[in-house]
């Protein structure tokens, strides 16, 4: 098995939603869904853009898909050689994880087509496609290349006032409905053959057609270059896009490809996780790292990563806690500048978090649950549609999932501890931590007649149980956030004036002692036989099996959570919650505690989210049971290889890639199998290699030093590498 | 129109559930549903007992129905002359509100039957029925009288180990499943004719049959006496029941009827509300007062009244806030010993309230939302069944409707202020108020960084909006409760030691100053253009019409409330909430404030509860708009005349009589039309008589003095009456 390649044979339009994710090419600026060049909207094509959003009417706000600048459509003797329109004799699709190359090869009978496509990792605005045609009959060929506007939108349309410009570089420009942002797509093409050229423009886009008579055995190649710019990138996005296309055309496909591959090689050098002993596992790890790296915002210093990456508009293209808890670890340990970008996004969107807290009657920073540009809350009050009544259901993710602020503070503190880089705290990070702590202070439920404080009416990671009190995970994260705020004083002990000025500027004088007091008075979770109760009253809920709960469904697409859902009134949980807490705070729990809780909660966990398995797997390793982690690891790492994962929550489509699983796979290998932990500013290992693996090795960068970690069944080593 | 009589012509088994309520006879100890004597369970017969509950398996706990001791079944020439089995030529049913007499008259063809039935108001264990038969053909008659065990149970069965004893007084005894309480039903009969007597006993009961040959024109009469006792009443309930039957048989029907009618006359003397000018209104008022008086617990000093009276097992036979807020006013002003019984029930069930508070992690007294004997919470966590999935839905009435404790404190304080009787406070009432205040202290959400306190995650009177924060009604009721606790010090100023001892006994030293502090720091409700926001965020909810919301229903039986219900996410409310607050605290709001809020909330109110219209009607009078009150008054007063009201909430049957409306009718007339208020310990009037009425008069008893109130369009008078 080539552990860098995923190949699929055959074509079924039913698989298009999933295949578009599995064979995605992306470069952080944009994601090109893995569909054939000739795909119209029925096959869910998209050039999904990072960080640009639009709302159409009162529908959900979501990211904008650009016009498809790599559209290619071949006709032969007047018939379209198009998947989905014509049954192929054979078809293969492939994604090359090492170099981010989509390939397809299709025999249509009279013609065969093969292509290679990239979203350039060397130049984030550039797309390129080399398209080769082989003829097995004589006949009249028409090759259309151009910019298709027949793209997939979930809650669109988002682009209006289209302008078309034909010429050597085609140009389609449009503006978004809400913020009037110009989106420009240009295309140039270079052919190794001649023909009669014509241009056409209609509702579906702008196209150039080359016609010629071909003979059996002829092989023709066209290289197509696409460029995408928006007015957020460039004052003249259209001109600039055209120039980039023309420049690429001049360089040629091979040159563009080489630069792209070199960029990928550099990425792998910094982060490649090698698994030896199980090829499927090794490939799954490559897939995970490929997907997560391909959507990292390398072109910007202040973007984060949506929960479904750049695979489409699912989950509104929004930033969730996935960024800080699931994507962050791989990046902070291997490419800290990307971790920094994720956190700078939060620093820059602090105003949105302050606004959200005020909106709910609180102080400090309450970050958006589904954060779009500027920290705007993208999460609606009605985030699920009931399958029986087809009515939107009031959900509380937006209102009650308060751990998000603590998750961000947690990542900020981790960033400082792993990189040793204090600048991010100076440049807004400290302010974020202080405002998050202030939010919790104002959100605390103080008992007037006792010393204790509750955090009532929250939702923890397990979203199936809405509006609970004293969620153990949330309370732990809150306490950590409060401590982190207080800890800043030591961190800035050498700049006491700067820190005092910051406190003054934030009017923090009265809050500081209150936070000190609150810190020690958050109600401790109840335990029963060592099991920490997930929230007040959880143990009183019906204790039944996952199968029993599943059997109560009346519709397979039903949402399990809330008061109407089958799980909401039972002990069945969606995903790791107490165990997520234990995974994130290894120093706070003994192995014995972790083991007891693991064995209680795992059978009660649906793993209905891609955020679940990795937490269980990491902790399984910690308790010395890597064999329990293996299946969870494979499930996590393989999710975008097999195309697993839920597609529906109620009537809402939730398909896409799974960056949290991708990051989770790295977490399991690094934090679980290798047992990587920071101790007094230095990395250390507690290896628990599963029997399926012989060896595990990967680089990390800590405190500006790069180390190579190697783990075998005889132990682990941390070796400093030369720069 | 005879304003004391309700008569219905015709028989339709479909109407049986409603007619059983409309023609109910009751005497506080038991209620006999208004169904014909021969009814089997298909027609929903029940002898519903007060204050005795049972749970069968894991079904809902509900009151126990006794065996039907007034069963009478006539056959002629081998054919059963039974409604529901045989189509009658004519049928009339009648209830005499003045004297609590059920009458029926049925022509079956060969025979006609007429009867009168009472649940004796003079002897609460006694039932009596005089049954007359007229023959229009010769033939063989068989008259069965006996004790039927074929009774209606919603969540039964509740009676087991039946014992049957034939003889001059038949006896059926059984014990309840859960608490092994003996329930005994006896019957004796006296006939004015001879026949061949035989006894039979089977699954459906114990029966005596008299057979004889009759001739056209013959008229025969049987008087049947039933007696019900339980082991809660008497150590030998069976013997005692038999003795009571035999005694009644000796006295004869007319004597029993006379004592019963005299007792009713005495009741009317103390409370009759006379409306002049509109006969339908006058009858509706008689109906309301009849129904409420007939279920008053005159036989006991420590019982309250279930929300559906004694009309069946609906709402688990439980005591709701209806008792203190809706039944209490008529009783406290006309028959204070009954008001005292309602409150003694709460005093005696304080241990249950203390237990419930502890169960939820609070201190003090959190009264049951659906209180059964001993204050046990009858409300389940799943109080609605979803009509689409047929699954129980998690509801929060039990957990979150915290105003109940304040409602009880409110009635205790009103009782003291209206009767001037302090003994009830001494004998436990003060303790209840103090424990309720303590509950609110522990339930308060103190903001650690401000001086304010919230009451978060509650349900107000408008149950469609679950789990809201700072419900205006609830917060107002809480503040009143806290003030009432503090006020006790003045009330007992002449017994300071006694009061100090009480505080000591309750370990109240630390709580007292905290309650003083909390009292002034409850967050005030937001207002917009003078409209008080029902709860935090209510104004942000969708503001659409009642019709628009109703149009979203996919099933007529759908529950409107909660996150899945059509109303829960809109400003449409189930019942008076802000307006209920204004109705209950007239001194705290100006007429202008009341008017503004009335006109905002009324169009947004479904009036989906019988607790709603009266609050709007009382306040409409206060703002000088009695014409707005009239329709609401008629709807309220007429509900058990017409048999209106909802029959279903989700898949749960909620039919029955509507004591809260019955009490509400009195409230509208007394507190609205007459504008009765207490001022400095004396009654005063603020009349607002609607144009439909010429005159209104009624007696009240205040501070042991009896007054006659008279209101006409030229004003009102309060005249002291001689004792």
How does this model look, in words?
The structure is a homodimer of 723-residue chains. By secondary structure, the first copy, chain A, is α+β, with helices and mostly antiparallel strands. The first copy, chain A, contains 20 helices and 32 strands. In chain A, the strands form 9 sheets. Chain A has a 9-stranded antiparallel β-sheet with strand order 1-8-9-10-11-18-15-14-13. Chain A has a 5-stranded antiparallel β-sheet with strand order 7-6-12-17-16, with no helix packed on it. In chain A, strands 2-3-4-5 form a 4-stranded antiparallel β-sheet, with no helix packed on it. In chain A, helix 9 (403-419) crosses helix 11 (472-491) and helix 11 (472-491) crosses helix 13 (511-519). Chain A is globular and about 90 Å long. Chain A starts with a strand and ends with a strand. The mean pLDDT of chain A is 95. At the A-B interface, strand 22 and helix 13 of A face strand 22 and helix 13 of B.
């Amino acid at each position: 098995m080539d552990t860098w390649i995923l190949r699929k044979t055959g074509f079924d339009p039913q698989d298009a939603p999933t295949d578009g994710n599995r064979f995605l090419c992306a470069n952080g600026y944009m994601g090109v869904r893995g569909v054939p060049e000739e795909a119209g909207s029925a096959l869910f094509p998209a050039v999904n853009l990072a960080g640009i959003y639009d709302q159409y009417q009162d529908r959900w706000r979501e990211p904008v898909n650009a016009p498809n600048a790599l559209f290619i459509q071949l006709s032969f003797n007047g018939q379209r050689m198009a998947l989905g329109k014509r049954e192929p004799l054979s078809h293969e699709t492939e994604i090359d994880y090492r170099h981010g190359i989509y390939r397809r090869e299709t025999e249509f009978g009279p013609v065969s087509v093969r292509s290679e496509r990239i979203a350039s990792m060397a130049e984030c605005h550039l797309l390129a496609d080399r398209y080769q045609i082989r003829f097995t009959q004589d006949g009249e060929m028409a090759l259309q290349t151009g910019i298709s506007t027949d793209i997939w939108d979930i809650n669109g349309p988002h682009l209006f006032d289209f302008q078309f410009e034909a010429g050597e570089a085609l140009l389609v420009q449009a503006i978004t409905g809400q913020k009037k942002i110009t989106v420009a797509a240009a295309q140039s093409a270079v052919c190794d053959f001649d023909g009669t050229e014509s241009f056409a423009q209609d509702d579906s886009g702008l196209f150039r057609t080359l016609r010629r008579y071909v003979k059996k055995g002829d092989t023709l190649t066209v290289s197509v270059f696409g460029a995408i710019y928006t007015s957020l990138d460039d004052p003249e996005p259209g001109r600039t896009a055209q120039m980039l296309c023309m420049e690429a055309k001049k360089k040629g496909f091979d040159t563009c490809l080489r630069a792209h591959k070199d960029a990928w090689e550099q990425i792998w050098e910094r982060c490649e996780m090698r698994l030896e002993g199980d090829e499927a596992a090794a490939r799954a790890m490559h897939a995970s790292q490929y997907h997560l790296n391909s959507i990292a915002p390398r072109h910007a210093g202040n973007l984060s990563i949506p929960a479904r990456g750049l695979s489409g508009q699912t989950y509104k293209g929004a930033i969730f806690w996935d960024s800080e808890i699931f994507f962050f670890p791989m990046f902070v340990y291997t490419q800290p500048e990307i971790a920094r970008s994720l956190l700078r996004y939060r620093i820059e969107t602090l105003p949105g978090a302050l606004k959200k807290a005020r909106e709910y009657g609180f102080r400090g920073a309450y970050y958006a649950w589904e954060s779009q540009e500027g920290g705007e809350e993208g999460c609606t009050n009605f985030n699920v549609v009931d399958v029986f009544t087809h009515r939107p259901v009031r959900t509380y993710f937006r209102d009650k999932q308060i751990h998000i602020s603590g998750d961000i503070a947690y990542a900020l503190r981790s960033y400082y501890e792993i990189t040793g880089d204090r600048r991010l705290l100076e440049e807004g990070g400290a302010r974020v931590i202080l405002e998050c702590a202030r939010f919790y202070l104002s959100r605390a439920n103080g008992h007037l007649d006792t010393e204790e404080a509750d955090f009532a009416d929250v939702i923890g990671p397990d979203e199936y149980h809405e509006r609970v009190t004293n969620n153990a995970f949330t309370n732990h994260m809150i306490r950590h956030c409060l401590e982190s705020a207080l800890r800043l004083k030591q961190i800035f002990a050498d700049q006491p004036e700067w820190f005092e000025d910051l406190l003054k500027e934030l009017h923090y004088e009265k809050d500081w002692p209150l936070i000190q007091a609150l810190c020690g008075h958050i109600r401790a979770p109840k335990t029963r036989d060592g099991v920490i109760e997930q929230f007040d009253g959880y143990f009183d809920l019906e204790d039944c099996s996952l199968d029993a709960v599943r059997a109560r469904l009346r519709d397979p697409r039903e949402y399990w959570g809330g008061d109407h859902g089958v799980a909401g009134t039972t002990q069945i949980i969606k995903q790791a919650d107490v165990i997520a807490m234990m995974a994130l705070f290894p120093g706070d729990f003994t192995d014995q505690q972790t083991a007891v809780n693991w064995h209680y909660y795992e059978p009660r966990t649906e793993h209905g989210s891609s955020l679940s398995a990795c937490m269980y797997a990491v902790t399984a390793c910690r308790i010395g049971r890597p064999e329990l982690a293996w299946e969870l690891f494979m499930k996590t790492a393989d999710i975008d290889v097999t195309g697993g994962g839920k597609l529906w929550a109620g009537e809402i489509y939730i398909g896409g890639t799974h960056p949290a699983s991708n990051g989770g796979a790295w977490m399991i290998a690094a934090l679980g199998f290798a047992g990587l932990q920071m101790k007094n500013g230095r990395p250390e290992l507690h290896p628990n290699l599963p029997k399926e693996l012989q060896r595990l090795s990967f680089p990390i960068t800590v405190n500006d030093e790069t180390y190579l970690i190697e783990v075998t069944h005889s132990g682990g080593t941390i070796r400093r590498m030369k720069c």
